[in-house]
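Dear Dr. H.,

I hope your travels went smoothly. While you were away I took the liberty of generating a structure for the chain from your last submission, since the lab meeting agenda had it listed for discussion. I wanted you to have the full record in hand beforehand rather than looking at slides cold. The sequence, exactly as received, is reproduced here:
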Amino acid sequence: MAEALLHHLSRGRVQVFSAGSDPQPRVHPLARETLEHRYGIATSELYPKSMNAFLGERFDYVITVCDRAAEVCPVFPGDPQRIHWSFEDPAAIDGESAQRRAFAAAAHGIAARLRLWLSVPAVRRRLDDAGSPEPPASAVDVIPDAGDA
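The corresponding predicted structure, in token form, is as follows:
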């Protein structure tokens, strides 16, 4: 969800990648539902990715959104700024109704943090200076595996 939310909130000005240490075969249906219905984000192009696909890549920021992800997140070259936000894995919640609420809460919390991050002067400047075809910043977020999005 974080990848789709950051891409949406930045209006595509941030090149963003999302990955897990042991990704599920498909994006969780409630992650898709939350993004589509609450944020109007198309999800047909989203798919789980392994963080191994990004080893050796350079990023400006690495954002982790759960404690387990922070523990297993590899070191990326170029000394990216690491940011950690602790969110409970909504896919780990029992019961569909409770899980639906957990996905909505996680998306709301991640979106709120991303809005704040996007307003940080250094980040804002890089986004405002986006005069070239290349995005001004890149970020990878390492997500919990059960609800990869």
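Two observations you may find useful: The first helix runs from residue 2 to 9. Confidence is low (pLDDT under 50) at residues 131-136, 145-149.

With kind regards,
E. W.
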